[in-house]
Amino acid sequence: MTDSRELDLPAGYVELLEDLKATVKAARTTALRTINTQLIELYWTIGQGVRLQQEQQGWGSGVIKKLSEDLRREFPEMKGLSPRNIQYMTTFAGAWQGGPIAQQAVAQLPWGHVTVLLDKVDTQEKRNSYAAAAVQYGWSRNVLLNMIMNRTLERTGAAPSNFAQQLVAQDTELAQQIAKDPYNFEFLGLSGEVAERELELALTSRITETLRELGPGFAFVGRQVHFDVDGDDYYVDMLFFHMDQNRFNCTKGLRRLGEHFALAA
C-alpha cells in the first residue's frame, strides 16, 4: 500500500487534515461530556426521589437497601446502584437545589468528583466554587482533592463566577477522566470493560511474561475479581497472590477498588 506521505499533497491538505482531526476530537469530547451530564442528572433524579420519600414517608436504610437490590436486579450492569451510592445521590440532590442540575458546573464533573465535594467541602457555596474551578481548569479528582485540602480557593479568593458558561477542555485531565469513568460505561451498559479490554486480553494472553515482569513469588488468581464491601461492588482488573509476602496484590481497574493496590491476606 502506498504511504500517503510519499504522495504530492495538494495545497490545503495538511491544514484540512489538522482541522478535521481537531473536529473529531472536539465531537468526541462533546459526546462524552453529554453522556456524563446525563448520568449526573440521573443520579440527581434518583436522589431527589429518595429524599422526598425520606421526608414524607420516613424511609430508612432498609428501604434504600431494598431499592438498591431491585434496581440492580433490573440493571445488573450498573454497579453505581449500591445502597451507599444511592445515599450519595440523596445527599447530592439535597445539596444542589438551585435550578436545573444540568445547567450547573457540577453536572460536567465525573461522579467521583461529586462525591469528593460532598465528603470534603462543608458549605454549598464552597462546593459550587470548587466545582466551577474544576471545570474551568480541568482538574482531575486528585487535584481537586488537593485543592480542597489546601483550602486554595479560600486563601486566594479565585473562585470563577462564570461556571455556567464553561466547558470541559478536551486536552485536560478532567476530560480524560470523563472518557474513562466506569460509571459512564456502566450507565451505557458496557460494564466498564470495553476501555481496558485490549490491555487485559494482552496481559492474560501473555501471563508468563506478565508474572516475570512483576517479579518472583507471584501467582495469578484471576481477572475482574469481584469484592463486596459493605454492599458496594468492587472489581479488580487482575488479582495476584505473592507467596513470600502472603498477601494479595492487584492492578487497579476501571471499576475502582478504592486507592489500594495491595490487600493483606
TrEMBL record:
Query: Boundaries of each YhcG PDDEXK nuclease domain copy?
Result: 176-245
State the superkingdom.
Bacteria
* Coiled coil (residue ranges): none
The cross-references to Pfam families, in alphabetical order and at most eight, read: DUF1016_N (PF17761), YhcG_C (PF06250)
Question: Any idea where the YhcG N-terminal domain is?
Answer: 20-155
Tell me the InterPro entries matching this sequence. PD-DEXK-like_domain (IPR053148), YhcG_C (IPR009362), YhcG_N (IPR041527)
The UniProt keyword set, sorted, is: Plasmid
Q: What is this protein called?
A: YhcG N-terminal domain-containing protein
This protein's species is Paenarthrobacter aurescens (strain TC1)
